[in-house]
Amino acid sequence: MKIGILECGRLPDEMSAQTGQYPPMFMRLLDGQGFAFQAWHVEDMVFPNSVSDADGWLVTGSRHGVYEDHAFIPVLEQFIRDAFAADVPVVGICFGHQIMAQALGGKVAKYAGGWAVGAQDYSFDTGPVRLNAWHQDQVITPPDGAQTVASNAFCAHAALLYPGRGFSVQAHPEFEDGVIQGLIDHRGPGVVPDPLLQQAQAGLGRADSRAMADRIAAFFKQHAGVRA
Predict the structure, then answer these.
(1) Which of 75, 114, 160, 205 has the greatest number of beta carbons closer than 10 A?
(2) Locate the Glutamine amidotransferase domain: which residues (predicted)?
(3) Which of 64, 97, 174, 223 does the annotation list as catalytic?
């Protein structure tokens, strides 16, 4: 089964040598699940020719807001709608979670409550999960038909299920501790309040993405089928 990774942004260059960019992070997260991968850097307007170029699509995080004026955003929104119409499953992470919601009629905004960075506890429909996060924007109003399947006190719509078509998560299951440390060092200062950065530092080692990796893999396999 081939998973297409739609790369919507890049992490700071200072981090690349140690952590890599989004595609290898997701390849590590889903390692051992029997997937093949191909990435398209959609932020640079490199898109697949068709939603049928992969068996499922994974939309990554980004430093951009989905409500900002960037050339790739409306094209990506249409691609997501086309994938849904063609019954090709889509998984979105952070920015991917948000742009799926916006593309399908939901509302995304910069949250007045500030930032969530580092390990966060979520109540999923399957039980408690602790994941690394790094965001201020979030889904405020989900699209019609989307089911909220995770939340916490900070983020009311922390994961959305679009039955049979999509699954999205606000947190970053692909972010290992080294990524959070890199963001604390290179993207946080002067942007994220120091007490939150200190909390993120103290929370290193607390997140566990295994259950979420299994859920993402199971979603793809259930809705696209595994083919040789």
Answers:
(1) 160
(2) 73-176
(3) 174
Joined tokens for residue 69: 């004026």
* Distance from C-alpha of 131 to C-alpha of 117, rounded to nearest angstrom: 10
Alpha-helical (H) ranges within 60-158 are 72-85, 95-103
Under the banding of pLDDT at 50, 70 and 90, the label for residue 144 is very high
From residue 207, how far is each of 15, 16, 19, 83, 102 by CA, in Å? 20, 21, 17, 31, 28
Catalytic residue (one of 41, 97, 172, 223): 172
- Exactly one of 94, 97, 135, 157 is catalytic; which is it? 94
Residue 174 bears catalytic tag: yes
Residue 101: closest CA among 74, 80, 123, 125: 80
Retrieve residue 218's tokens.
């199971």
pLDDT at 13: 84
Please report, for the domain that includes residue 20, its CATH number: 3.40.50.880
- Could you confirm whether 155 is annotated as catalytic? no
Q: Token pair for residue 12? A: 């700071």
Residue 114 lies in domain:
2-224
- Amino acid identity of residue 69, one-letter, is D
pTM of the model: 0.95
Active-site residue flag, 77: no
Give one word for 20, left, alpha or beta, with left for phi > 0 and alpha for psi -120 to 50. Answer: left
Question: Which helix (H) or strand (E) is 18 found in, with range?
Answer: helix 13-19
- Give yes or no for a contact between 126 and 215, defined as CB atoms under 8 angstroms apart: yes
